[in-house]
From TrEMBL:
This is Laccase. GO terms for biological process: lignin catabolic process. Its cofactor is Cu cation. It comes from Linum trigynum. Residues 11-124, 136-294, 414-546 form the Plastocyanin-like domain. Binds 4 Cu cations per monomer. The keyword Transmembrane helix does not apply. Gene3D superfamilies: Cupredoxins - blue copper proteins. InterPro entries: Cu-oxidase-like_N, Cu-oxidase_2nd, Cu-oxidase_C, Cu-oxidase_fam, Cu_oxidase_CS, Cu_oxidase_Cu_BS, Cupredoxin, CuRO_1_LCC.
Amino acid sequence: SSIRRHTFVIKEASYTRLCSENKIMTVNGEFPGPTLYVYKGDTIVVDVINHSPHNITLHWHGVAQPRNPWSDGPEYITQCPIQPGRKFSQRVEFTFEEGTLWWHAHSEWTRATVHGAIVVYPKKGSTYPFPKPHAEVPIIFGEWWKNGVFETYKEFLGSGGDPNASDAITINGQPGNLFPCSKSDTFRLDVVRGKTYLLRLVNAVLQDMLFFAIADHQLTVVGTDGSYTKPFKSNYITISPGQTIDVLLEAKPSQQYYSSSSPMKQYYMAARVYSSNPGAVFDNTTATAILHYNDHQDWILHHSSQPTLKLPPLPSVNDTSASVAFTGRLRSLSTSSSDAEPVPKDVTTKLFLSLSINLQPCPNNYSCPPGGPFNGTVRIAASINNVSFVEPRSVDILSAYYNHINGVFRTDFPHKPKHPADYTGDRPFEGAATTHGTRVKVLGHNSAVEVVFQGTNLALGSDHPMHLHGMSFYVVGWGFGNFDERRDPKGYNLVDPPFVNTVAVPRNGWTAIRFRASNPGVWLMHCHLERHQTWGMQMVFIVKNGKGRKAQMLPPPPDMPPC
Ligand code: C2O
Ligand code: CU
């Protein structure tokens, strides 16, 4: 197939939200950024030109990038940042994915406004596993900061504590009716009664998982993270940062809701924060958009004024059971035509990874900001198996690996936490102690990997949406409490587990995933809550080359950005 080129110019642009104007980072001046439309099997080249005053990199979230980590994008992991005035051409190949993915900046917190949807249509000549929808609409959840993203990030780094929450969640760039100065710009989806619409939902929010629902309408979930699921109906969805969910919306209000009154012309679509962290400060004001019926002449005749719009009932902000009840229903749709690796049955590499957020005492080599909430005595750190990840600065890990540069990273990432513990007690435990380092885990080519993520119940903890670059994985099991090595694997789903690139590990619980390390390269894995990532909840896998040319990493393109 032919290769299409796209030009992404990174530049600042002025946008007004919540009654004041702000300069934000954008691609081509758009917020949210442009949607990429491709067919499965396509390859595109994106010419990224940095006309902004800030460093940046771009990442194609959920795209495997077979043998080509050079285009993956995470700063200091697979490339150095694209500096102001420079350009980098990224090749993106859509081999395995079909459905909705997204692209975003992967440099400090610039992804806050530099992001957009990727729509991957079925291969030309093939069809969806459901009737063709009347129309398809990307719906991107984002955020707005009155203070600006760079300012918020700087304050966060300087405090040693939690970041300030954004001032609004946005739906396709708009906070909606309930916010000041926002009413006339609220995102509106116009629909024709009786038709079916495919909503491609993307959570691009920095710090929060979300609940989403549409008043008086049920949603049929058909896909997640660029792969199809067995369809199921739900009144709401849970979506974590990094995740995408595809739903079918039938433009027909449910009978059960309006039997007593007549159907209306407009309905609220609404999104609100879900957080399992009891101590968290968040803005739980509801972002809204409008579902608008185009063809409702009767209604206009019989009603002189629009009755007040109803908000859909959303689960409450800390409703963990509602969150896991939704996520636990996802099942992959196995089709014979699927190109995905089957669920690995015989695991060759097992990792048990404890995810923790804790207070780190000072002083040590990481000093604590004196002006912060803890008076310079402690700061918050995040770690995986007690290792808080440190990005190298002089060279990226991929180049260091490829060019055999010593001293950039160590290959002794621990398989287990230092002190196995009761992770679900309420008190800090030794197992949460943090050391800093750039340590990677090397995987043999095609090894069958199982990772068990263990969350904790510490005060600073929350669900962790863990995201893997380079390979999607199967979620074979999850549960609350401590993972039990003897009992829990017996309950694994090896038949139709969901095939995803991001999974929310519940607070006070565990999640088990499996994948085949079939993609040679350097691949980041991290929590997709931006503060946790910055605190160090990241690690890197190096997947070794296999035998034969087709199992080897490609050489770097000539225009890799210099450090
Ligand atoms: Cu959405 Cu490291 O990425
Ligand atoms: Cu996290």
